[in-house]
Amino acid sequence: MSSLEGLRANSSQFTLRGEPFRILGGSIHYFRVPRPYWKDRLLKMKACGLNTLATYVPWNLHEPERGAFNFQDQLDLRAYISLAAEIGFWVILRPGPYICAEWDLGGLPSWLLQDKDMQLRTTYPGFVNAVNLYFDKLVSVVKPLMFENGGPIIALQIENEYGSYAKDDEYMPFLKNCLQSRGVSELLLTSDNWEGLGYRGMEGGNYIIYDRTCGILRFPISYMLLLMSLKIFVNLILSVLKTINLQRLSFGAIQHLACLQPQKPLMVMEYWSGWFDVWGELHHVFHAEDMLGVVSEILARGVSINLYMFHGGTNFGFMNGAMDFGIYKPVTTSYDYDAPLSEAGDYTTKFEALRDLFSRYNSEALPEVPSPLERTAYEPVFTQQYLSLWDSLQFTEKPCRSESPINMENLPVNNNSGQSYGYTLYETTISSGGALNSVNNIRDRALVFLDRQYVGCLDHRTHEVALPDAKGERTLAVLVENCGRVNYGKALDNQRKGIVGDIELNHTPLRGFTMFCLDLKPCFLKRLSTSGQWKTDYKSPPVPGFFQAKLVVDGLPKDTFIKLPDWGKGVVFVNGQNLGRYWLIGPQQFLYLPGPWLRTGENQIIVFEEEKVDGKILFSETPDCGKTIDVYKLPFCSLL
């Protein structure tokens, strides 16, 4: 075989450059790790004995507005993959377009939802057109990094866990064609959990031929056999390699995979090294000894593996996803995942155990373990200025007016790509009290105010708030938060945010709305922080509101954790960087603040608080993940 031949799956063992190859992989997402720490995290993974990096690509970050692409700075995918190659990794790219990843809308951009008929993850024309334009750009970015061009990318994954969704048999062939018609010739694979492995969307009873001139062609098996006998195939490409996602060796999962594709290499594309957390529940842990027993057996069977996650990182900003299997549960800001490297890049007992295990599967001695990064607990700081929500509205984009409420995605903002994240304030006038009913049209959580006085909260459990009677017209304001779009399951189909239908007062729909987009983007924060309108009278600081403090750093900035034990719920910004959400209901009781986002001297901290202000901001060297629960002792269905 040629030494230039890439990753192949033509027998029971992978080959790379014509030689047997075992994938020992780990997932680290560039978009969840501050760019200055990419190298630190990758070097630590290399020191654990892994040879392959797997990463998703989040469409919603790379095309935040329709047609406006961003592959720079924190989102410089080409730089990340090149760095991985420099350190000595091969790369498995997972470009989606849907990625799940506990990421808002599974990585799909929210502006797709402006189309009221949109059918995500199907061959619906509106979705197909958007995917084609995105892949035009994405493939142009990564194609120079493919193995055939001397780069590290040896395989690409088509979509993600589509067997559990399975709405359109034409969809996976369409995505396969998206890659191959753009010149991608590396190994393609799919990734499914046990229940989705049996989905035959890549074949569907037919064989699929890809011809560079004709695109996707589908033929019945009988006709295919005739063509084979006549030997008239050109550029024949059969179905892609299946891989499996799991945490436990149950249901005969790996044997099931082997039976589905005999004489093909076996791979666990996602071995779940831990689990993610949702607000209001416990912090999930997966003990090292339980994990090590399963990983050891997988390797002993000769199966390739990718640890999901090797390092989880952080859902900075508003990018967390949510689960909804009858009950809506938003994911926390921390994506620590109880992974071998912690959220802040610390070594854990899992790292040490895995390094010892993987050293037995490496022919050469492993690299030295990089030194841990320093952290510190800065002295507490106190908020010195505030600006109420109501005073901040002048710094938003021009408000929109409509008789009926408009959902976030369809607001005429952000170059008509709508509002993706954050809060939307809906205002109207009323002339009576009574029962305000959301009619279950609030997505996801709303604070209700009458003449700027708080009167109640609406969410997926509470649909009604009592409004007091009074004479004359009054202003009703509903501050709605998008707490994170669902990233997995059938509920993905209904993820428009804000007010998504009528709300009623005494069974009568309200009309005449003014809507303010509060997506809290850097441009808004800059206008806010430099406005000169901040107040210092702290007798009765208003909520919701913005609260500003200064942190002075002497010497080189170091990582730390922000703690707000006596605050309620909100978002923290440091030097314009959105660290994410905090919420007293836990389990997360901290926000990770990377040292590179601080500067020597004065640093600005702005807290947007919805409910309860303390005024004191604490710092710690260690995170407080809250009370824990052991994943391995839970039935898998309870995690969903």
Verbal overview:
The protein is 17% helix and 28% strand. The chain is α+β, with helices and mostly antiparallel strands. Among the domains are: 15-202 and 239-273 and 295-303, Glycosidases (TIM Barrel); 389-518, Jelly Rolls (Sandwich), CATH 2.60.120; 536-620, Sandwich (Jelly Rolls). Strands 3-4-5-6-7-10-11-13 form an eight-stranded parallel beta barrel, surrounded by four helices. A six-stranded antiparallel beta sheet has the order 18-29-19-25-22-23, with no helix packed on it. The radius of gyration is 26 Å and the shape is globular.
Q: Quick summary of this structure?
A:
The protein is an alpha+beta fold. 17% of the residues lie in helices and 28% in strands.
The CATH topology of the domain at 15-202 and 239-273 and 295-303 is given as: TIM Barrel
The total count of helices amounts to 12
Q: Give unreliable regions as ranges.
A: 204-238
CATH superfamily of the domain at 15-202 and 239-273 and 295-303: Glycosidases
Q: Helix- and strand-based class?
A: alpha+beta
| Mean model confidence by pLDDT | 92
Q: Sketch the major β-sheet.
A: 8 strands, parallel, barrel
- What's the count of strands? 37
CATH architecture of the domain at 15-202 and 239-273 and 295-303, please?
Alpha-Beta Barrel
Radius of gyration, CA atoms, in whole angstroms: 26 Å
Overall 3D form: globular
Strand content: 25-35%
Q: What's the CATH first level of the domain at 15-202 and 239-273 and 295-303? A: Alpha Beta
Separation of the first and last Cα atoms: 46 Å
Strand order across the largest sheet: 3-4-5-6-7-10-11-13
